[in-house]
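Hey, can you fold this one?
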Amino acid sequence: MPEIDRSEKGSLWRGALRSCISRFDPSVDVSAAEISEFPSFVGCSIGDTAHILIGSLSTADIGPYLAFATRGLASVLNLYVPPSAIPGVSASSFSAVVGALGLQGEGFEISVEVLMVEREGLKPVVGGTTLQSVIQDDIASREFLTHPGAAEVVEIVLGNRCEAFFIGDRMYVTHLGLEVARSIWVDGRLALEVGVGRNDRMARSWLKDPRTQDEQLKDVVQTVNRYRMGSSQFHPLARLATARWMRLAIQDDPSLISVQQLTPLELVRTGNWPTRGLWSLKTGSEFNDEDAIMYRGFDTSFEEDDLAFAIAIDSADALHVVGISAGVDLGAVAKLYEVARSLADQGRKVDGSILVVQERNRIVPIERLVNLAGFRLRSATLSPTWKKIDPE
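Sure. Predicted structure:
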């Protein structure tokens, strides 16, 4: 995390952080504090306490701030979050985000306090999550199958050896982890909207492909196979949604992470979460008025942060929450803890958690956060040969 080279002496963020520290504890001498400045936050360590002021919050995970705190061997982290860190959101949306940060902080063996920065002072945050976990078992598909046309579209999907995921009355279809279709309503019946991502689905709809839904899906599956299983490793279709592809490989061979069975888990946010993303708070994907009309009715791709989740059963019938990370994500442990808590809040007995990473992404800062976890967690590594599964 390189420091920003600023021409002026200090910045407004540095002064704001000193003000927050003084508000929290007037007895602390902040004049000599060595403040480090990064693109989205400023932080310093005073004694055993790390103080961080978030200037811009683009994702709701506490991992990067914990990485900063543990690098300085702090045992306490005070995280100050002003409303300006997430511009343009309502007070209830802001509360939902900082509540998630507060809950994630409970998952580590370091004392974390999240404080909202208000005009009147600092307000401690009560941790809580708006995340809901949907286990992809028979119960998940039961509601969907009650709707007109549901049985027919599910038959097409399974006939093409695709994976179907159900969230309420919506079905999302993937092949080798990559979204290839989703359910839509047409004249009161369910049908398939085929295509890899929003732009492909939109183009096929506009061109009014005369082929049957089954034929369209077969064509997309063949395309995905060609790029996923071929030699075009740098093509977008070979690189997108890798985490769900890793999850599919583990389903095919659960022994890769020393478990007996793996069942996919999909997630939704409820309440006043400010974006459609599960953790992402970026609004860069929003279109201006002219483009918004063009994309109306075509949802964004079924993809979130290149993470995938599942529940696993081991040889002792213990239930584990599995988080699968395809890249280098300092927030992976915090997000996994939030998912585990969401399942526990839904009445599931969680015996432990497993963080799965690719061998090339097993770096010291992530392992440090794994070791810092205050919940039962172990890490597992997938070797580069994990992609060798049969697409047919």
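The two ends are 43 Å apart (CA to CA). Let me know if you want another pass with a different chain boundary.
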